[in-house]
């Protein structure tokens, strides 16, 4: 017992020292840890601030020296390639026509605005004056944008693609009077078209789908795919002429060389002139169109596309036109053109 007690007593000072050290070191460790954490937080905040400053400085320089979309066209390009013609299809919606002309006359690189007029009565003097005044006030300095009404005796959707001999540009932007696209988006599409002028470049994609054997109850081989099918699959084979660039030569081919039976079909059914043009261009090129990302603003009331029979009518058009051509000229694609300078996510 004494030996045990003596050993215990002899170790007691050492234990006291260790206890004192143990009671002191945790406090020192906590203080050091706090100091280390605060140092890390401070360094992190400094790095974030420095990175943000550098980023915004680069962004400011980018916007300062960023060329406008219109300046992408080289100065050495032929005159017919430096600008484009706006071809507006309208029908008894003068208020929408005024708004459309007012908007597009502000866009750079516009050489001419042509209005496809198929109404029985000619445009009134007041309408002509109002549109001419809007073009003169809003067109760019030195732009000299011309405004022309192309009058037609017959009321036919084929009129929107009637051959125009005195066009000032090779590029034609076909657009309906009830849709508005920002000038920047139109310039982007024009730039894309210049890289592939033989094809159609537009904002409204659609698709033709192959029917399964169980779906061909009415004998149709294909069916018309609306926007939701393009959105779901990312695949399309047409861009609608309600908002699309095409070469002016296709107006000549549509009027003079496309099968007459298709033009007659369009007139009688009052539909599918855009599908007819898509077939024509695809048959000439063997290539798909190009879909360009753009913000669309509908300024008119819903048209024939909202009718319940619209999809069925378009399906019949696709199958009937394919029968006339003897094959399916439309080509599938998944390509989408986006302006990378203004896109955060790729």
UniProtKB/TrEMBL annotation:
InterPro entries: GT64, GT64_dom, Nucleotide-diphossugar_trans. The chain crosses the membrane at residues 35-61. This is Glycosyl transferase 64 domain-containing protein. Belongs to the glycosyltransferase 64 family. PANTHER family: GLYCOSYLINOSITOL PHOSPHORYLCERAMIDE MANNOSYL TRANSFERASE 1. Residues 84-337 form the Glycosyl transferase domain. Pfam families: Glyco_transf_64. It comes from the Eukaryota. Keywords: Disulfide bond, Membrane, Transferase, Transmembrane, Transmembrane helix.
């Amino acid at each position: 017992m004494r030996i045990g007690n003596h050993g215990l007593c002899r170790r007691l000072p050492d234990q006291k020292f260790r206890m004192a050290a143990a009671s002191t070191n945790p406090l020192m460790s906590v203080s050091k840890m706090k100091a280390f954490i605060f140092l890390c937080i401070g360094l992190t905040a400094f790095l974030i601030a420095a990175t943000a400053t550098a980023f915004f400085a680069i962004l400011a320089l980018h916007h300062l020296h960023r060329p406008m979309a219109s300046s992408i066209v080289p100065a050495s390009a032929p005159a017919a390639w430096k600008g484009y013609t706006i071809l507006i299809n309208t029908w008894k919606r003068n208020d929408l026509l005024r708004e459309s002309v007012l908007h597009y006359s502000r866009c750079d690189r516009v050489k001419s605005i042509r209005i496809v007029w198929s109404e029985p009565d000619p445009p009134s003097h007041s309408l002509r004056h109002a549109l001419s005044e809007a073009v003169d006030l809003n067109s760019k300095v030195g732009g000299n944008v011309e405004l022309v009404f192309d009058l037609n005796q017959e009321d036919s959707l084929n009129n929107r693609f009637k051959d125009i001999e005195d066009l000032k540009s090779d590029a034609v932007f076909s657009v309906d009077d009830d849709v508005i696209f920002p000038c920047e988006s139109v310039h982007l599409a024009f730039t894309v078209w210049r890289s592939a002028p033989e094809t159609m470049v537009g904002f409204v994609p659609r698709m033709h789908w192959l029917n399964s054997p169980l779906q061909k109850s009415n004998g149709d081989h294909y069916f018309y795919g609306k926007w939701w099918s393009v959105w779901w699959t990312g695949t399309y084979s047409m861009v609608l002429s309600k908002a699309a660039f095409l070469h002016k030569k296709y107006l000549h081919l549509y009027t003079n060389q496309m099968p007459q039976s298709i033009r007659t079909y369009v007139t009688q059914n009052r539909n599918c002139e855009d599908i007819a043009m898509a077939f024509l261009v695809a048959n000439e090129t063997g290539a798909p169109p190009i879909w360009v990302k753009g913000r669309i603003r509908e300024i008119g009331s819903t048209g024939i596309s909202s009718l319940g029979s619209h999809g069925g009518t378009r399906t019949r058009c696709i199958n009937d036109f394919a029968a006339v051509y003897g094959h399916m000229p439309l080509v599938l694609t998944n390509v989408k053109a986006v302006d990378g300078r203004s896109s955060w996510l790729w």
